[in-house]
Write a structure and sequence with these properties.
heterodimer, A: mainly alpha, 2 domains, 3-stranded antiparallel sheet, 10 helices, B: mainly alpha, 95% helix
Chain lengths: 382, 164
């Protein structure tokens, strides 16, 4: 019921957005002021991607004074490696938001890409390129960017929190609290989650080998959960909705699946028990399946987390889009927008748990399938 | 918009962070947490099993006690019955013996009485005889002194003989 209503409301919201865009395009030829407004509307796009993309600084807000933009942000260290120059480190503030080149490197901004006439399909804002003595970008030099970006910083914060919490409760268990007595505080908060993952994800899928995989699956779950929850704090980076993050997790899952596979698994892939004619179709499908499983893990987590963030930013941007059209419209839209944002926020909290659970669950299922043939009585139950 | 192209740097940092977190948790957190939970579950299961066992033992003990009690009660009844029987037996025996004794005493007494009686009768007889002799002597003495009385007496004797 709630879901269908939400769907309906979302439909209304997006049709409103479309309406605004079409209105502004109709109005283009009318006057210059409308065109200016249209540019501001399109800025929403930049705002959205600015929020969900990685960055070399922790950007909070910008304010305008004297016709210039003054961003308020925390600079982060930039660590670059290029075969010719070796490792170079400096703070991202030295770029002055792309205005200056530092130690032979330049930060690309939309403005810079336009100015230097770079291929916008190959280069995008936020990227760092090497520059030659004339201050022109040298696209031939390969630059490896190991910078502590805002995603990295936030991930480290989330993981420090995770490690601290886990070590804290581990210490309590070592002391016998929660073993001989009832668990207390944060222990009793996390314990049901840990036992849920153990009893409903790990045990049913991994059967007799569950103890061996328990640390890995539990870590995966809490790794995603903590990062996803920290990323819900307004102003933070979108770590779990970054494909490098989900890609890495999928890669570990892929490696774990391969290392836990047995001959039965490979026999099933390379010589499935089907008629010969079907084998020619099924073998390529099965081989492809080895790769599609982790790939699906990667895309699923990435898309789910990204979508939630985009929706929230869209809804907030909606206020300003309306605001540029008409101040009163902006104010009148804001309560609806905020109500939606609150709703989506709750969904996002649910999604954080859900996606962490799904990732852990599917990893457990795939790993379980890899050594399934060992014991036929312990088949995977989905 | 390089959303779909994984950033190499972030990938490496995620790798490093994940491995560090994984090994720290695997070494210091998970064994304690998982072990602690397992131990507690084991303790609870053991406690429940012990409680169940104790309960069963209690029930068994109770039934044993009841059986024992029933047995004791039965034994008590048996003993009481036996005691009653013994009592009756003793009483009867005593009665019988008493009767026998009494009979013996009676018989003895009878015998003694008889003996005494015989002795008494003999005595009486002797006394009577003596008395008769004395009386006869006195009578004879008087009779002999009186002729007429003698004649009367002889006459009466003769009459008697006749009558007989």
């Amino acid at each position: 019921m709630l879901h269908s209503r939400a769907k309906c409301l979302l439909g209304v919201t997006f049709s409103l957005i479309l309406l605004i865009f079409s209105l502004s395009s109709f109005a283009r030829q009318d006057s210059d002021s409308i065109i200016e407004k249209k540019i501001k509307i399109l800025d929403a796009n930049e705002v959205i991607f600015g929020h969900i993309s990685d960055g070399h600084e922790f950007h909070f807000i910008s304010f305008f004074s004297g016709g210039k933009e003054h961003p308020i942000s925390i600079p982060l260290p930039v660590i670059l490696y290029s075969p010719g120059k070796g490792i170079t480190t400096f703070m991202s503030s030295e770029f002055h938001h792309g205005e200056r080149t530092v130690k032979g490197y330049a930060l690309l901004t939309d403005h810079n890409i336009e100015r230097w006439g770079l291929n916008s399909k190959k280069f995008s804002a936020g990227q760092i390129v090497a520059v030659n003595e004339n201050g022109q970008p040298d696209t031939g030099v390969k630059v490896y960017d190991f910078s502590i970006t805002r995603n990295v910083v936030q991930m480290l914060i989330a993981l420090a929190l995770l490690v601290w919490v886990m070590l804290y409760i581990a210490k309590k268990y070592k002391k016998g609290e929660g073993v001989n007595t009832a668990p207390k505080g944060i222990q009793s908060l996390l314990e049901p989650v840990i036992t849920f993952i153990r009893d409903d994800v790990i045990k049913p899928n991994l059967g007799h080998k569950y103890e061996k995989y328990q640390p890995y699956i539990q870590t995966i779950f809490f790794f995603i959960l903590f990062n996803a929850l920290v990323a819900l704090i307004p102003g933070t980076a979108n770590v779990v909705g970054n494909i490098a993050f989900t890609g890495f997790l999928a890669l570990t899952a892929f490696i774990v699946i391969l290392f836990s596979s047995n001959s039965h698994y490979w026999k099933h892939i390379l010589w499935p028990p089907v008629p010969l004619g079907v084998k020619f179709i099924l073998i390529p499908v099965e081989i492809l399946g080895i790769f599609t499983k982790p790939f699906a893990l990667m895309i699923r987590l990435f898309a789910n987390m990204l979508a939630g963030h985009i929706i929230i930013i869209c809804l907030v941007s909606l206020i300003f889009i309306f605001g540029t059209l008409n101040t009163i419209a902006g104010y009148s839209v804001s309560p609806f927008s905020v109500a939606f944002v609150i709703f989506i926020y709750f969904i996002e909290i649910l999604v954080a748990f859900l996606q962490a659970y799904i990732f852990a669950m599917l990893t457990a299922v795939f790993v379980g399938q890899a050594f399934e043939g060992d014991h036929h009585e312990e088949k995977v139950h989905l | 918009m390089n959303l779909l192209i994984p950033a190499f740097g972030l990938l490496i940092w995620t790798l490093v962070a994940f491995l560090v977190v994984f090994f720290i948790l695997k070494k210091f957190a998970w064994p304690a947490i998982i072990g602690g939970l397992k131990k507690r579950e084991q303790t609870i299961a053991d406690s429940l099993a012990t409680a169940e066992r104790v309960k069963a033992e209690m029930a068994q003990m109770k039934s044993e006690n009841e059986a024992l009690l029933a047995k004791a009660r039965e034994e008590r009844a048996q003993m009481l019955k036996e005691a009653r029987e013994t009592k009756d037996k003793i009483i009867n025996e005593a009665k019988d013996q008493a009767k026998v004794e009494a009979n013996k005493i009676i018989v003895e007494a009878q015998a003694a009485i008889d003996t005494q009686k015989m002795a008494a009768i003999t005595e009486v007889k002797n006394q009577i005889g003596k008395l008769v002799i004395e009386v006869s002597e006195k009578v004879l003495r008087r009779e002999l002194s009186d002729k007429k009385a003698q004649e009367d007496h002889v006459r009466s004797l003769v009459d008697e003989v006749k009558l007989n």
